[in-house]
Amino acid sequence: MENLLLPIFALLNLAVVATHGAALPPQLYWKSLLPTTPIPNAITRILRPDWVEEKGTAVNVGKGGVNVHAGKGGGTNVNVGGKGGGVSVNAGHKKKPVHVSVGPKSPFDYVYAATATQLHDATKVALFFLEKDLHYGTKLDAHFTTSSNQATFLPRQVADSIPFSSDKVDDVFTKFSIKPGSEEAHIIENTLSECEETGIKGEEKYCATSLESMVDFSTSKLGKNVEVLSTEVDKETGLQKYTVAPGVKKISGDTGVVCHKQNYPYAVFYCHKTESPRTYFVPLVGANGIRVKAVAVCHTDTSQWNPKHLAFQVLNVKPGTVPICHFLPQDHVVWVQK
């Protein structure tokens, strides 16, 4: 970790100068534009006011740091310490595995075919399922864990000063003291590639490199009368049987922006507005009594997805035939109109 701490500390001190003194901290920018919209825990956890605080005309770096590392089995994490996290879920009545692993390509990017890692890796972060199964009494095996992807937001003026482009990836490596060809380098290259890839028909995509830019993109698509939601897990539990409890609720119309946290040295979210998504609140109760307030997003039009996408393989359905849903991992958010 130490090899990355010094470069980012120096970067922050050099990038933020007196001319930026009037800029609002990220959380105040949110409140200025969305005064009636609470910031979800998925966002507040990575604001890290103890790490980056504005005082006068400078940004002072306090505790914390940034670390990029590769996980087992080809999975990857970007964090500042802590255990690996996500949510691994397996519906017992399915013949094929229905979990999604963090692999070379994101399962939330619908251009890509499933990889062997996504099908077989033990590190899972989401579950694809059919909308018709989203009701009280559905049982599934799940393992909710605390997210390890704790890469924090940079203030927009700092994030904007850092190259975010495959054409300038060498500059990124230099800034974060990352060796070209290393696992860390491949993580960064993959994230940049996914952000630059053309979206499917009907998808408006954008990689937000700061909280302010996420707010701007999402409100430009939905307006400012919005809710921002994330999955809430009380505490980490072992693998166990969960039951969908009473209270499944559709919480939006057929529009929304989903933002998936990416693997990167600082917080980057791949946000996309797609055709006719539906968002649900799904209460879950574990066999040991643990409760999870899960958020599920259902895609009603999958006709433009890659036919070899993971969802079609694990659910044995074809593109464009039935709505496909997935739970949001704890560090992802969905924006919906109130």
TrEMBL record:
Transmembrane segments: none annotated. It comes from the Eukaryota. InterPro entries: BURP, BURP_dom. PROSITE patterns: BURP. The keyword Signal applies. Residues 128-338 form the BURP domain. It holds the Pfam family BURP. Keywords: Signal. Residues 1-23 form the signal peptide. This is BURP domain-containing protein. It comes from Phaseolus vulgaris (Kidney bean).
